[in-house]
Amino acid sequence: MALGSMRGRGAIVVLVAAVTLLIGGGAIAYWRAAGGGSGAETTGTTAAVTLSPATPTAALFPGGQTSVVLTVTNPNLFSVRVGSLALDTGQGSSGFDVDGAHTGCALAILSFATQTNAGAGWTVAASGNLSVTLTNALSMTSAAASSCQGASFTVYLVAGP
Predict the structure, then answer these.
(1) Of 48, 73, 83, 46, nearest to 161 (Cα)?
(2) Mean pLDDT of 133-155
């Protein structure tokens, strides 16, 4: 029996060795395999949002404030976040215009407070428009001349990140 028992053990040892070589050889082949590749992708062009000129929602008087409304237009195929709306001093007369009947109204009496929507900004949908009301953003000093009575003002704004 001792001889038969030895043959059985020898066969098991040979079988285990063969399985180990198969598995080990496969693992070595797996780790030695080499590969390569490359990829490229481009993004589309991003267009700037456009802002309509902002207009006051109510009559402005010396020492007073009013809200302004405007429309933000997003031509992109994805939504865009506007972080702030500030006076665009490069347009009009330092960011403001007055109607032709009130050209004697000095625009230096006006000021605009940069708006951030309480830090949240505004999100404009893809290919969409967003109407925005900026509460009490436009102010007139108490030094306004009587030539400003009944004037219609335009406020030019720029969107920031």
Answers:
(1) 83
(2) 95
